[in-house]
Design brief:
Layout (H helix, E strand, L loop, with lengths): L4 E6 L3 E6 L3 E7 L2 E4 L4 E5 L1 H8 L5 E4 L2 E2 L2 E2 L2 H16 L8 E6 L5 H13 L4 E6 H8 L10 E6 L4 E7 L2 E8 L3 H16 L1 E2 L2 H11 L10 E8 L5 E7 H7 L1 H17 L2 H10 L1 E4 L8 H9 L3 E3 L6 H14 L1
Parallel strand pairs: 1-9, 9-10, 11-17, 17-18
Antiparallel strand pairs: 1-2, 2-3, 4-5, 4-6, 7-8, 11-12, 12-13, 14-15, 15-16
Helix pairs in contact: 2-3, 4-11, 5-6
Length: 326
C-alpha cells in the first residue's frame, strides 16, 4: 500500500482529502483567517472558521477558491500545504503523488495555476482529474464500457452535467450557479420580502432546514433572526419552505437548463442509454429537498442521488490514481 497517494477535492466551500488505503481522512472549510494588523494568515480550515466566529474586526475571512477555481494563488498554496501535511502526518518524508479535481470551466491558465499550487504545496507528481469522471468513480459508476452514463454534480461553486462513456467525457456543461448562488438568492429574498439583512451562514442554514425545490402539501417554517433593514435593530421573522422554493426559482431554472442542454447535445445511441440507466446526482447541493424529483419530472428520466454525494468527487479523485497505477 502506497500511503503517499493523495486525492484532493478542491471545493469552493470545503476541501476533502482521500488517502490511499484509508479513505476520506479530512474535510474542512476552504477558508483562511487573515490578520490585517499583522498582515498574515492566522489559521486555515476548521480552526479559521472557529476563529472567525469569535474574532474582532482585524481578522477577516479569505476564500481563495471561487466557483471551483483559484482566485488567490498564494493563499491556495498555503492552504494545500497545510492540509496535505495534516493528512499525511508529520512523519511523512516522502513527497506524495497527488490527484486533484478539475472543474469543467477552467482555462489553460487556471489549469496551470491549480497544478503549480499543488507542486508548490509539496507534491512530487500531480494528476488533474476532470470533475465528472471523479464524481462518477466516487459514485461507483462504471464508465469504462461503451455506453452512456449521466452525472450531475452540484457543489457550492459550480454545477456540472456530463455524459460519460469509455472513460471519457462525451458532452459536458458547467455553470457557476450552485450552492453559493442558492444562498445568495435566499439573502436577496429575505432582504426584498422581509426587510431583513442576513448573512451567508444563516442563508445556508435556512436552505438546509426549510429549503425545497418542489411544492409540498406540508410547509416547513423556520424562525429567522437578522437585522431590520429600516431600523438596523435585531428582528425575527418566520420563513416558510414555500418562500424558499420561490426564492430559488431562478438559480434552479439555470441548473435545469444546463441538464437539458447536455441531454440535447447527447448522441442518440448514448441518449437511449441514459433513458435506460438514469441520471446520478453528486455534490452537497444535490441534497436540497426535491432535487431528485424535480430533475425526474423535468426530464422524464429516472434520477437517483449517489450514496455519498458530498464525498463522491474526493473518493473518485483518490481512486483514479489507484486505477491508473493498478
Amino acid at each position: 500500500m502506497n500511503v503517499s497517494d493523495i486525492g484532493i477535492d478542491l471545493g469552493t466551500a470545503s476541501i476533502l482529502i482521500y488517502v490511499r488505503g484509508k479513505g476520506i481522512v479530512l474535510k474542512e472549510p476552504s477558508v483562511a483567517a487573515f490578520d490585517r494588523d499583522a498582515n498574515k494568515i492566522k489559521a486555515i480550515g476548521e480552526e479559521a472558521r472557529m476563529m472567525l466566529n469569535r474574532s474582532t474586526g482585524n481578522i477577516v475571512a479569505i476564500r481563495p477558491l471561487k466557483n471551483g477555481i483559484i482566485s488567490d494563488y498564494a493563499v491556495t498554496e498555503q492552504m494545500l500545504k497545510y492540509f496535505i501535511q495534516k493528512a499525511s502526518g508529520k512523519l511523512s518524508f516522502k513527497k506524495p503523488r497527488i490527484s486533484i479535481n478539475l472543474p469543467g470551466t477552467v482555462t489553460e491558465v487556471e489549469r496551470k495555476a491549480i497544478e503549480d499550487a499543488t507542486y508548490q504545496a509539496g507534491a512530487r507528481e500531480v494528476t488533474l482529474v476532470p470533475e465528472p469522471i471523479a464524481a462518477a468513480i466516487g459514485a461507483e459508476i462504471d464508465i469504462s464500457k461503451p455506453c452512456g452514463k449521466m452525472i450531475v454534480d452540484i457543489g457550492a461553486g459550480t454545477c456540472s452535467a456530463a455524459i460519460l462513456s469509455l472513460d471519457g467525457v462525451v458532452v459536458e456543461m458547467t455553470i457557476k450557479t450552485a450552492g453559493d448562488e442558492f444562498d445568495d438568492a435566499i439573502i436577496r429574498y429575505a432582504h426584498a420580502n422581509h426587510g431583513l439583512i442576513i448573512g451567508e451562514r444563516l442563508a445556508e442554514d435556512i436552505k438546509i432546514h426549510v429549503g425545497t425545490v418542489m411544492e409540498r402539501s406540508q410547509k416547513k417554517l423556520m424562525e429567522v433572526k437578522g437585522r431590520d433593514l429600516q431600523t438596523g435593530l435585531p428582528k425575527t421573522v418566520r420563513i416558510s419552505s414555500e418562500e424558499i422554493r420561490e426564492a430559488l426559482k431562478d438559480p434552479i431554472a439555470q441548473v435545469m437548463d444546463t441538464i437539458h442542454s447536455v441531454l440535447e447535445k447527447t448522441p442518440p445511441e448514448l441518449a437511449a442509454d441514459i433513458m435506460e440507466r438514469g441520471i446520478v446526482l453528486t455534490g452537497g447541493s444535490s441534497l436540497l429537498d426535491g432535487m431528485e424529483e424535480l430533475i425526474e419530472e423535468k426530464t422524464g428520466i429516472n434520477t437517483v442521488t449517489a450514496e455519498n454525494p458530498i464525498a463522491a468527487v474526493a473518493i473518485g479523485v483518490g481512486r483514479y490514481l489507484e486505477t491508473v497505477s493498478a
